[in-house]
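task queued by scheduler; priority normal; single chain, no ligands, no partner chains; default sampling; output format set to structure tokens
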Amino acid sequence: MRALKLLTVLLCTIWALNVNAQQKKYVMVIHGGAGTILKKNMTPDKEAAYVAALTKALQAGYAEIKAGKSSLDAVEATIHVLENDPHFNAGKGAVFTHDGRNELDAAIMDGKTLMAGAVAGVTTVKNPISAARAVMEKSEHVMMVGSGADLFAKEAGLEIVDPKYFWTKERWDGLQEAIKADSTKAVLDHGSKKSGLLGIKNHDYKFGTVGCVALDQAGNLAAGTSTGGMTNKKYGRVGDSPIIGAGTYCNNETAGISCTGWGEFYIRNVVAKTISDLMEYKGISVAEASKIVLDKVGKMGGDGGLIALDKKGNVAMPFNTEGMYRGTITADGKIEVNIYK
């Protein structure tokens, strides 16, 4: 009888652990940018607005997954919500270049096929993530840039807007402050130890890039990233977000990754692909691989964060800044949103 009771307890414990493991299977992770995000500088209303936006984005993507649609559909739907919300540096809330333009970048990748699409420097596409998907699915290319990408998006039937659509007072005021203080001027200073290996000083800490990684019912991953870049950026600058392997990467055999931060360092470290490679060739977890690569970015002088989701539903959301807008949703629909460390 005693042995039977022990066996019953053991079976119940195993069942409980399995249930808990199932509850912790994540099907989506998102970010809304990393940077100097301090609670003391955040009003209750603004914090509530960020939480509401991230929650709405997760719900939009989760609805696609629950309906049996692809992870690509979930990523696109999720990022649409964030691109349409002026709180984030993507789409409607994009920051301004030095000459007062909004130049938008985005990328998306299918973990099943390793197909990918990206756009950079578009100025009239309402939702750049959809333009990136159109490049992937309706062309033989991976990346299109500038006016050519705008034209392609129009011919693909995407919603085109007047560039004035992207104008917001907060971002415009941010540009004026940046110009006045020269706080984001990319000046090469090869003798500066403080600026790290890249040699760029006075970078913009107001990262607001958005990203999403989703795992659908068929077990396929997809990742996407969308951004307005850096305030006061010059000379056709493109960051890591639309560069496959740097700011965005996805492979069913490893993980989907979307990055946010000081793009030049993410490009130089090929961050997203390196995380995937560490998982594939060294057999380490998504959390460990993400930490290793982000630590290297930090040692070089770069900052930011990333999100990653592996094929088993394990998630990683490391960042080396004061905060990162981020959120997850599990297979059973449980949402968690965080902002600060």
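post-processing summary
- Residues 44-66 form the longest helix (23 residues).
- The two ends are 50 Å apart (CA to CA).
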